[in-house]
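Q: For a teaching handout, I want to show students what a protein-ligand complex looks like in token form. Below are the inputs, and the small molecule is shikimate-3-phosphate. Please produce the holo structure.
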Amino acid sequence: MKAGMPLSVPGDKSMTHRALILAGLAPGRSRLEGLLTAFDAQSTAQVLRGLSIGISPLWVEGGVDVDGSSGLQPPRQHLDCGNSGTAARLLLGVLAGYGFPATLTGDKSLSRRPMCRVTDPLSEMGAVIRVAPHDGLPVTIQGGALKPIRHVMRVSSAQVKSALLLAGLVGGVAVSVREPTGKSRDHTERLLRAFGFSITESDGWVHFEPTGCLEPFEFSVPGDPSSAAFLVGAALLGRRSMLTIRGVGVNPTRIGFLTVLNRMGAQITIEHQEDRLGEPVGDLHIPPAELTATEVTAPEIPGLIDEIPILAVLAARASGTTVFREVGELRVKESDRLGLLAQNLRGLGVEATAEHNTLAVTGTDKPLRGRITTDGDHRIAMAFGVLGRSPSSDVVIDDMACVGVSYPGFWGQLGSLDLR
Ligand code: S3P
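A: Here is the structure, written as tokens, with shikimate-3-phosphate included.
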């Protein structure tokens, strides 16, 4: 079997947000390597700078210094979270612990995403919050002394869970939060544990006690498995050679897509594992494979929520009908991903339905041709971009630049793969 040059992918987006935030809260100078430098990461860095945290420029090469010694100070202007839901929700959690007012804003897509899932429990903890009438940004928050909380989330969401844990951290209060179906990514828990905070888990609950102490730290952010997923998808569709992707985060709460793909007939393996501040990191090996349909169940969804676009596109080339259960949450991502996936797949000639909370995609080997509406959503663009590079497909993406939100070098890397 041919083997291409090993690739690596940009730093993990979720960990980049969290590393910047925790470094900003630590009293001193932290050093972060391998950070994502894409627009979403720049948004979090820019908001923290607006709160008087010193952060050196986020360049692709080289590390980033974060100086949190001044502590968070009242902002002089509105804090723009750009396109990033993680920035907005996690930073609301942080601001809940500070007694000054701050207003978070975002772009058109972010402004329409629901915020009350975070602002309701933060209000219950004691923050005073004004949310725009449509339950989106702008949100103005004035925090202060917080109360402990026990909160059952309506949907399993790492953003909500992390916002509350961060509020517990800055407010120095206990937080217990329960996820209804399946476990969402646990990067915040792992990082807090690394600083000696008590984080225990039982029966879907995560319990946080403010026992630890946040110190300046060094961290090297692993490659983003959600970005790697697009290259994995390209390699599987291309069916020509073995692909290796080095240094990818393989936290079990992030790699549900690998489990699903292996169930569909792939034989992806993880090698050379190491540990960075409690986060497992490894190399992915992806041999070519033919895929068959599967059912992706509700408890699996939180562990692959960002990979549904690429999985749906792969399902369009698998034999049989793949069904994704309970994916209603996709309607409130960067776009209505559920609607757009079905609409775009149908536009190319694939049988696909999005009814209630279920997405069903029937695979075909017919040539696929058409124009993709992304609504500015990076993951829709990348998923259909992968399909477009596969044999007998001719796909035009209406907005290729939107990948800059998470993966600026995506088109170059995709183009370098031997796929046809
Ligand atoms: C993220 C959590 C997920 C994911 C998003 C990043 C995070 O959102 O879709 O891209 O870093 O916490 P939800 O937690 O709202 O599902």
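A: Two things your students might notice: Residues 14, 17, 86, 157-159, 162, 184-185, 305-306 surround shikimate-3-phosphate (CB under 6 Å). The chain has two domains: 13-209, 225-416.
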